[in-house]
Specification:
CATH superfamily of the largest domain: Peptidase S8/S53 domain
CATH class of the largest domain: Alpha Beta
Shape: globular
Strand content: 15-25%
Radius of gyration: 21 Å
Order of helices and strands: HEEHHEEHEEHHEEHHEEEHEHEEEEEHHH
Largest sheet: 7 strands, parallel
Length: 474
C-alpha cells in the first residue's frame, strides 16, 4: 500500500525494526499466475450475459452503449480442472486477462505447469516470507460520541467544509446531488469497525469481500450476517479503508460529512498487510472484476505499487505506460466496461522514485494527486508523466490535514493521496448522478475540463483542482 508521508515512513521503519516477528503461518508456499491460451470449452456464452454479470452491470453498459465481449466471459472451468488434476490449489482467476492463480508448496510442479498446452505464460507472483511482523491487537471498541471541540454549531460540514468546498462539492450537494443511486467500490487494505462507527451507521454498505483472506461472508442489502470477531479480524485489522470510506460516506452533521453520503458502497479488501508482492496486482484485479460484475459505477483505489519485497520484481520507469503491468492493464479496461476509476497518484514525491505508482499510470482513469490548503503541491505527492507521455496526475485535491474518521470513530486529520482521492471519487458520483446520460469517458473529460490548469497542464498538478459545480453547469 502506498505510504502516507515520508515522515510516517521513517516512523514505521523504526517501529518495525524493533517489532516482534513471528513465523509465517504454514509451510513455505508459492503462487504462480498462468495466462491461458483461450476461453474454449466455456460454460458461458455472450448471448446469455446474465449468467455471469448482474442486471445492474448490464444496465450500466447498455446506458453507455457498451457491449459485452470475450473479456467478460469467465475463465474456462475445463481449464481450471486441468490444473486441479495436478494436485494444486486454484485460488483465483481473472476473466479480463484470462489468468489463473495456483498455489502449491512444490515449485518444480508449478514451474512444470507452464508447459501445459493451455498455458501461454507462467510467472511466480508470491513466495511466502520466512517471518512477518507480529499482528497487534485489534481495537474493537469505538467512540460513541465526538469531543465538544470537534463540532461546529450550525455548520453541517464543519471540519470537512474546506476540503469539499474547494472542489465545488457543497454547491453540488445543495442542488440535491449527494451520490444517491450511484454505487462505489472501495478497494483498500482494511476497514476496521466500519460497521460499528456511529458516523457511518447510515452508510449504504451493499457488501464486503476479502480477496486476501477470503473468510468473510458477503452481506446483501445492508443486512450483515453474524460472524465471530476472530473470523472478521483480517478485514478489521487496518483502518486505512475506514478513513477512506469516511471521506466518502460519513454523515455526522456539524462534525464532518463525506463527499457522497447517499451513494451505495462495496468494501473490497485486496491489500496484503504482511508482504508486498506482485500477487497484489491479482487481488486488485479480482476486486475490480467483482466491482464490475455487481454493477459498481465508480472504483476508489487508494493503493499503488512500485517497490516489491526483494529486488527482482521492482518496477522500472519504463513500465509506467498503462499496459506493461498486470494491474494497469486491468485498470485501463475499466472505462470500456463503463466504470470510472479514481486512483491515488502515490506518496513517493520525496523519495528516490518520485513518480506515480501503478495502476495510477493506467489509461482513461482519474489519477489524483495532493495539494495543501493553499493549493500548493504536497511535497509527498507523486508526479508524472507516464512513460508514453500522458499527463499525470489528472487532477489534485486537498491531501494534507484531511478531516477523516479513524477506525475507532474519532475525528482525525491525516495526509496522503490516499485521502485526496476519495474527495474526488465522491464528487464524481454526485456529478454522474446529476448527468446520468454521460458515459464514463465523458465524465472523466468533464472533470478534467473543469480543473484550474486545464489549458496549461503540468506533470505536477495535472489539469489542476477540479470544480464539480462548474463541470455540472457548463
Amino acid at each position: 500500500m502506498e505510504r502516507l508521508t515520508w515522515l510516517l515512513l521513517i516512523l514505521l521503519t523504526s517501529l518495525s525494526a524493533s517489532a516482534a516477528k513471528i513465523k509465517y503461518p504454514g509451510r513455505k508456499t508459492y503462487v504462480y499466475r498462468y495466462t491461458l491460451i483461450d476461453k474454449a470449452h466455456s460454460d458461458f456464452s455472450l448471448t446469455q450475459p446474465r449468467r455471469f454479470l448482474s442486471h445492474k452491470s448490464l444496465l450500466r453498459r447498455e446506458r453507455q452503449g457498451l457491449t459485452v465481449d470475450s473479456t467478460d466471459l469467465p475463465v474456462s472451468r475445463a481449464y481450471i480442472e486441468q490444473f486441479k488434476q495436478h494436485g494444486v490449489e486454484v485460488i483465483g482467476t481473472s476473466r479480463w486477462q484470462n489468468t489463473v492463480l495456483v498455489r502449491s508448496t512444490d515449485t518444480l510442479l508449478l514451474a512444470g505447469l507452464t508447459r501445459m498446452p493451455i498455458v501461454v505464460e507462467g510467472r511466480c507472483v508470491f513466495a511466502s516470507p520466512d517471518s512477518i511482523d507480529a499482528p497487534g491487537a485489534i481495537r474493537w471498541n469505538v467512540h460513541e460520541n465526538f469531543n465538544l471541540w470537534d463540532s461546529v454549531k450550525n455548520d453541517r460540514y464543519a471540519g470537512s467544509r474546506e476540503q469539499i468546498e474547494s472542489l465545488g462539492g457543497i454547491r453540488l450537494h445543495q442542488a440535491g446531488f449527494t451520490g444517491k443511486g450511484m454505487t462505489i467500490a472501495v478497494l483498500d487494505g482494511g476497514f476496521q469497525n466500519y460497521d460499528r462507527i456511529p458516523a457511518l451507521q447510515y452508510a449504504r454498505i451493499k457488501g464486503i469481500r476479502d480477496f486476501v483472506a477470503p473468510i468473510i461472508p458477503d452481506t446483501e442489502g445492508g443486512k450483515k450476517k453474524t460472524k465471530k470477531q476472530a473470523n472478521a479480524a483480517p478485514f478489521h485489522a487496518n483502518d486505512h479503508g475506514t478513513k477512506v470510506l469516511s471521506a466518502l460516506a460519513a454523515n455526522a452533521p456539524e462534525v464532518m460529512m463525506g463527499t457522497a453520503p447517499d451513494a451505495t458502497y462495496w468494501l473490497l479488501k485486496c491489500e496484503d498487510p504482511d508482504t508486498e508482492q506482485p500477487i497484489e496486482e491479482d487481488y486488485w484485479t479480482m476486486a475490480a472484476e467483482m466491482a464490475d460484475s455487481v454493477g459498481a459505477d465508480i472504483i476508489n483505489s487508494s493503493l499503488g505499487y512500485f517497490d516489491y519485497d526483494g529486488d527482482d520484481n521492482d518496477l522500472r520507469f519504463q513500465d509506467l505506460d498503462g499496459k506493461t503491468t498486470f494491474i494497469s492493464r486491468s485498470a485501463s479496461m475499466l472505462a470500456r466496461k463503463g466504470i470510472i476509476l479514481c486512483n491515488s497518484a502515490g506518496n513517493a514525491g520525496m523519495g528516490q522514485w518520485k513518480k506515480i505508482s501503478v495502476p495510477a499510470d493506467a489509461h482513461d482513469i482519474l489519477t489524483v494527486g495532493a495539494v495543501d490548503k493553499r493549493q500548493r503541491l504536497a511535497a509527498f505527492s507523486s508526479i508524472g508523466p507516464t512513460q508514453d507521455g500522458r499527463v499525470k496526475p489528472d487532477v489534485v485535491a486537498q491531501g494534507t490535514s484531511v478531516t477523516l474518521l479513524s477506525g475507532r470513530g474519532t475525528l482525525v486529520r491525516d495526509m496522503g493521496t490516499s485521502f485526496s482521492t476519495p474527495l474526488v471519487t465522491g464528487l464524481v458520483a454526485c456529478l454522474w448522478q446529476a448527468m446520468p446520460e454521460k458515459s464514463a469517458l465523458e465524465i472523466i473529460e468533464l472533470v478534467r475540463r473543469s480543473a484550474s490548469h486545464y489549458n496549461e497542464p503540468t506533470n505536477i498538478y495535472g489539469y489542476g483542482m477540479p470544480d464539480f459545480w462548474n463541470a455540472y453547469i457548463k
